[in-house]
Amino acid sequence: MKKFTLPLLLLIHVLCLSNDSSLPQLGMDGTVSINDVSKLEGAPGLNLYIFTVTFDGNGSNASPFSVDYSTIDDSATAPSDYAAAAATLNFSGTDGQSLNILIFASGDFNLEPDEQFFVQLSNIQTTNGEDITFADAQGIGTLTNDDGAELTVTSIGNSQEVDGLEGNFRLSVSSVLASPITVNFTMGGDAIEGTDYTTIGTSVIFPANTFNLEIPVTIISDDLVETDELVIMTLTGTSNPQVVVGSASEATVMIIDDDDRPFVNVDQIFGVDEDALNNTLIGTVLATDFDLGTTFSDWMIVSGNTDTDSDTNLPFAIDPNSGELTVNDTDDITGGAQFILGITVTDGTNTSIPETVIVDVNTTLSVEDGEELTEIAIYPNPSSGLFYVKGLEEDALIQISNITGSIITSELYPLGRQDAMVDLSNMSPGIYFLTISTAKATMSKRIIKN
Q: Which residues fall in a coiled-coil region (predicted)?
């Protein structure tokens, strides 16, 4: 708000005449006005305030005229806060002409409120008696304090080893600093500095002329599976007593562990015929590890590999390096049996939790044709989609049903066509039943679509 100092009697006189229509109208031939200037106080030294005084001739030029000016103290006082000045401005009378008044203010490091002073215009002197008055006769110069600031810390993101992302601590000041300061802090949390992340230290230089400084939390990579860990920064103070630590004095960055355990893929189902010989390959168990370059090893069957004939030989074996699952004791596997195996694997450092792998034992089907027994073979089983039926010697109806009993496909294969093909390529992976019906018998066999 602009401040005017008028004697009380003069103020009363002006108020009494405010409704007098005989008073002259302001600015019949033009007006003069001055702007306000606000600047950061700055460091110790001179800071230039440029006030602009403008003549508005209402679209017309006037004769040359002059205007006096002088500074007036308010909360800012001369000479400690600014240099007092007084002089005369000489206008040519050109409409729109502007002249500058230069006032030098002094900066400091004092924590204080904003301060202001005035530049007062007065005494318009015209050469030909033009009616030129003041539209705004007082400019306000504001010295905006920039010496006191509040320092805070926040966290930006988290650190992740898997993709190289770094979390950051962001230091912020409420006002731009005129010169650098030292910020002091402590580091805490369950993450170990120098072991889990590179050393940050206990202080940092906060530069001048900026609001923010970011400090990265750089992970030191390892292969250990561990819980996510916390890095906590707590601000303790600064080298400048005018920069104080605010309420947001602590922040946390999380180090997200990327060394996941490997895991055996879920929903792996294999099939083997009951008459398969020892060392018959059943299939290869698959595993996943999100760590790049993992080599799996130490495949183990930890449960479900039950010796059913008590001869101390287990029914299945798994290659420790490849994960290939084979028949180890054919006497332990009988048609229709299902083995639920618990299998683990390591990535060289970490071991997976046991995952269920199912092995279904298929019954070998046969058809009795008078005195002759002709075997029917279904292969491959499991299959990615195409199954072949070999050994049909009479008309046969082949139906495929799902585990709920719903028939999916049904096709009649006439006499003389000994081989048949069943296509489940468009079906979802899972267990199905293939039923063969002839005039003499009906048989079903479980098949697995990968």
A: none
- Return the beta strands (E) in 281-406 as ranges: 281-284, 287-288, 297-303, 316-318, 324-327, 338-346, 355-362, 366-369, 372-375, 377-379, 386-390, 396-402
Cβ atoms 61, 91 nearer than 8 A: no
Mark 327-363 as b/e (b = at least 16 C-beta within 10 Å): bbbbebbeeebebebbbbbbbeebebebbebbbbbbb
First to last CA, the chain: 82
Instruction: Give residue-wise pLDDT tens across range 175-198.
Output: 777 678 999 999 999 888 988 888
Asked if residue 302 is part of any domain, the answer here is yes
Residue 410 sits in a domain whose CATH number is 2.60.40.3080
- Inside any domain, residue 430: yes
Considering 4-18, 229-243, 312-326, 387-401, the range whose residues carry the highest mean pLDDT is 312-326
Model confidence pLDDT, tens digit, residues 93-109: 999 999 999 999 988 76
Rg from Cα positions in the chain = 46
Whether 123 is in a domain gets the answer yes
* CATH code of the domain in which 161 resides: 2.60.40.2030
Domain match, 106 and 37 both: yes
Residues 6 or more apart in contact with residue 93 via CB below 8 angstroms: 55, 57, 61, 62, 63, 64, 65
Total structural domains within the chain: 4
Q: Please report whether residue 265 resides in a domain.
A: no
Least confident range from 59-63, 94-98, 263-267: namely: 263-267
pTM across the whole model: 0.37
Domain that holds residue 300: 272-353
